[in-house]
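Thread: "does anyone have the structure for this chain?"

Original post by V.I.:
We have the sequence but no experimental structure in hand. Need at least a predicted one for the grant figures.
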Amino acid sequence: MLHKAGLKIVSAAVIQTFLFQQACFAGAVPAQPVLPPVSLNISASLASIDDAYQAPAEELKVVLIQDPHTNVSGQIHIAGAIEKILDQQKINIVFLEGGDGDASFNDLKGAPADERRVTGLSFLKKGELSGAEYLNLVSEKDFTLWGAEDMNLYYESLEAYRRIAAARAANLQYLSQIGRAADFLKTRIFNPDLQDYARGVSGYAQGAISTTDYIDHLVRWAKRLRIDPSAYPNLAEIGRIKSEESRIDFKKAQAEREAAADAEISLDDQKQIAEKYPELAKYFRYVSAAAKLEYEAALNEQKNLERILWDSLAVSPDEKSLARITMNLGILEHLFGLRMTPAEYSDFKSAEATFDIGFMTGFLNRGILDLEAGHDHVVPANPDCSSFLA
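Reply from O.Q.:
Generated one for you, tokens below.
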């Protein structure tokens, strides 16, 4: 799998979400993953190889390129990477998403090269051409662009996106109102331990708590409840890496990196780095550990641990109902915010009845009206939001 240079800043941001506070200092070189032998020679200025799989037979070869949609520099890097791959490999078909059948620009190849390049670049900058399409238009290389979509499913997905996007702002505002009612009721229904846990969940959802601090929150409660730590090894590893991060002097590591460069010592020479530049060596060990983390597995562990803690800390029937509503509101906010994960979609489909807006607001309103105060938190009916989820 090729990873364009244009996406390196995105990858750094993803890692920082979990771990880095200062780690992406200028010129840092992340450790490369251990891969099977790959017969691709791609300049690091264009792309880097993130992953590879060696099939038992080598009759077919597939190169999957991560695509930063509408990012001009990223698309230009894609074009350059594809050009190198076509030169090196016996590949003459480039498959595209969002299309069906032959999408090549053969009929336009008769136009002057300069005109094709200028026109192609203008459409690339507007996000109307991809890097692969741009290369097919401007180069003289003989290769085919082929749309790989099932168009029925493609248009079905577009329609689903259109419906969600059109109702997004109004539904998110209504869910926020339900959330405020739920938060009010938590102060009256939840036991102290459950309130403490819920505050951490809410702080993380609102962006007030970093991911690593939130993981510390989950792990602390898991330890208090004597939950087997073998159930969340990746979360435990994130905690270990965060602790390792706290022992790194990043300014000193940067100075040592510059000193190593001045001394013309290769950053791959781990022995010399360890002997002469201990802070830089610590940094490289830290980055290497971060690169080995299984992020998808860590996310799954986080979600599973959240459920276990809700179930363990919620004791009464009302606490359990309100805990479930809290979890479901988070998933619905991700749905309308276009951030729903496959695991969340599975949760949604497996328990659709509990996502019913009428059920949630009915429970909250009954609880609020039973109290002497707080009636201003009662949530009015919203048929549009309810029918959207029906």
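V.I.: this helps a lot. Confidence is low (pLDDT under 50) at residues 1-35.
O.Q.: and The two ends are 40 Å apart (CA to CA).
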